[in-house]
Structures are given as structure tokens and as C-alpha cells.
């Protein structure tokens, strides 16, 4: 191959290189233009960028608000729960205080009841002792019923018979009446520890086997009317008219009587001068 024959082949690459350079220049200019446009772009797109970021801020604010609301609700629930607990504690304290007061009241009532029972027992024991003493007196009086009393056969109120000279049924009646001295007076009472006037007279005569009427009006006419100057132990004394008497008692000798007088004095033994009777009847 000749030397000249290789020249075209040698130049052709130069032309290619020139084109390549041209193309590179065009491409570089284009890219430069794009770079310039890109550099100018952010300044023009800044409002768009801010607009795009707003939903993100609003979303974060909404989440924070929701969290705050939830925290507030939880705080309200906690406060309500604490209030319920405080109310329950106060109620429990009041209940405990009330229960304590009730226990104290019951304890005091129990102590009072025990004291009352003790006092009643002591009173009953005292009463039994008194009744035993009266029974002893009755026994002593009954033992003396065999003693003669010739001087007492014509006794009067000015020289009354002594109860120690009483015999037979009269002694039993007098002894029973005296044994009840100190008992209470209760309207309608028939014993054994409380009497009214006619209930005591009826019970005294029952010890002698004599059944008297229950009321004082009938008792004041049961038997023979006798003068107050010619009384014998066991005679029935009455106050008021015969058949309309309002009070009765038993003459026990020595110018004295035993009767269930009233609620203030109870059953007593008194002188006839204390309350002079209207009349008397003899049943024996």
C-alpha cells in the first residue's frame, strides 16, 4: 500500500475527534444550562416546599393535642378515683366510729343492767331476811297461844289485850298480819309481797280457815258489829260506814292495828290514835 493511500485513513479519525469535541461542547453547554436552571430552581420553588411541609406540622400538632387530651382525661379519671377512695375511707371511718359508740352504749347498758340486777338481788335477800324474821316472830307468837289470859277476857280500848295473850285462830290472824309489816301497798294486791287493805285482811283470815269477802265494803259487815271500846285481837277495823267502808285493817291488841295503808307507807303497824277507825266487826 502506498504512503498516500494511508492519508485519508489518517485524517478520518481527526474529523471524528472534532465531531466528538463538538458534541462534547454542545452537551457541556446543555448540561451547564441545566445546572444554571437547577441553581435558579429552589428560589422559585420555596413556597411550594413550605406548602408541602404544612401537613406534616399540622399532623404533629394534632398528635400532640390528642396526647394532651388523653393525659387530661387520664388525670380526671385518677382524680375521680382518688375522690371515690377518699369518700369510701370517710364512710368507713364514720361506720367504725358509730360501731364504737354503739359498743360503748351496749357496754354501759350491760353494766347498768348488772348493777340493777345486783341491787335487786340484794333487796330480795334483805326482804327474805325480813320475812324470815317475821316468820320467827309468828312462830314465837303461835307458841304462846296456850297461855291463859283471864285478865284479857274483858279487855277494852282503855285496857287493850296484849297480842302475847292471843290464842287460837286470832293468834294465827295477828301473827300473819304482823309478818307482812313492811310489804308494799298495791291497789288490788293480794300478796305475797304486796297488798291492798282488804287483800291483807282476807289473806290473814284465810290462815285461820275463814274465807272473807274480797272488798272492804263487804268485810265491814261480815260478822258482828262491836264497840271500839270492846275490841279483841283479830277483830276487823273499818273506816267509813258499815257496808260502805273505804278501808279496813286488823286489830292486833295493845291499842294497835296492822293494815296496808297506802303506796307511801305500805303495810304498817300503828296506834289506833294515828287514825281512829269508824267501827269494827268480830268474825271469830
Describe the structure.
- The chain is α+β, with helices and mostly antiparallel strands.
- The protein folds into two domains: 4-94, no CATH class; 147-282, Alpha-Beta Complex (endopeptidase fold (from Nostoc punctiforme)), CATH 3.90.1720.10.
- The protein is 57% helix and 12% strand.
- The chain has four helices and eight strands, in the order ααββααββββββ.
- It has helices at 7-143, 168-179, 197-206, 216-219; strands at 184-185, 194-195, 224-226, 236-239, 247-253, 256-262, 266-271, 279-282.
- Strands 3-8-4-5-6-7 form a six-stranded antiparallel β-sheet. It has a two-stranded parallel sheet with strand order 1-2.
- Helix 1 (7-143) runs antiparallel to helix 2 and helix 2 crosses helix 3.
CATH architecture of the largest domain: Alpha-Beta Complex
CATH class division of the largest domain: Alpha Beta
Number of domains: 2
Structural class: alpha+beta
Give the CATH superfamily of the largest domain.
endopeptidase domain like (from Nostoc punctiforme)
> Fraction of residues in helices?
55-70%
The helix/strand order is HHEEHHEEEEEE
The total count of helices amounts to: 4
Net shape: rod-shaped
- The value of Rg in angstroms is 65 Å
Number of strands: 8
Biggest β-sheet: strands ordered side by side in the sheet: 3-8-4-5-6-7
> In percent, how much strand structure appears in the residues?
5-15%
Alpha-carbon distance between the two ends: 202 Å
Largest sheet: 6 strands, antiparallel
Please mark out the parts with pLDDT under 50 across 5 or more consecutive residues, or reply none.
39-43, 141-163
Q: What do the pLDDT scores average to?
A: 77
User: Per CATH, what is the topology of the largest domain?
Assistant: endopeptidase fold (from Nostoc punctiforme)
Amino acid at each position: 500500500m502506498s504512503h498516500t493511500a494511508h492519508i485519508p485513513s489518517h485524517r478520518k479519525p481527526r474529523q471524528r475527534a472534532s465531531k466528538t469535541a463538538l458534541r462534547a461542547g454542545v452537551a457541556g453547554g446543555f448540561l451547564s444550562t441545566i445546572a444554571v436552571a437547577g441553581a435558579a430552581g429552589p428560589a422559585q420553588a420555596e413556597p411550594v416546599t413550605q406548602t408541602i411541609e404544612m401537613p406534616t406540622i399540622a399532623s404533629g400538632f394534632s398528635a400532640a393535642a390528642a396526647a394532651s387530651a388523653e393525659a387530661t382525661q387520664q388525670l380526671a379519671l385518677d382524680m375521680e378515683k382518688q375522690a371515690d377512695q377518699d369518700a369510701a375511707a370517710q364512710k368507713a371511718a364514720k361506720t367504725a366510729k358509730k360501731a364504737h359508740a354503739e359498743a360503748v352504749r351496749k357496754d354501759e347498758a350491760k353494766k347498768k343492767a348488772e348493777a340493777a340486777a345486783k341491787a335487786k338481788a340484794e333487796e330480795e335477800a334483805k326482804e327474805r331476811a325480813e320475812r324470815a324474821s317475821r316468820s320467827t316472830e309468828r312462830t314465837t307468837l303461835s307458841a304462846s297461844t296456850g297461855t291463859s289470859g283471864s285478865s284479857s277476857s274483858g279487855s277494852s280500848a282503855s285496857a287493850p289485850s296484849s297480842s302475847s295473850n292471843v290464842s287460837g285462830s286470832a293468834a294465827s290472824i295477828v301473827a300473819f298480819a304482823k309478818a307482812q309489816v313492811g310489804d308494799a301497798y298495791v291497789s288490788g294486791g293480794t300478796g305475797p309481797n304486796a297488798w291492798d287493805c282488804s287483800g291483807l285482811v282476807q289473806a290473814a283470815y284465810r290462815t285461820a280457815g275463814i274465807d272473807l269477802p274480797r272488798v272492804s265494803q263487804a268485810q265491814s259487815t261480815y260478822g258482828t258489829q262491836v264497840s271500839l271500846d270492846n275490841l279483841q285481837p283479830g277483830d276487823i277495823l273499818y273506816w267509813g260506814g258499815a257496808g260502805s267502808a273505804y278501808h279496813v285493817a286488823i286489830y292486833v291488841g295493845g291499842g294497835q292495828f296492822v293494815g296496808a295503808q297506802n303506796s307511801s307507807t305500805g303495810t304498817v303497824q300503828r296506834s289506833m290514835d294515828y287514825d281512829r277507825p269508824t267501827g269494827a266487826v268480830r268474825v271469830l
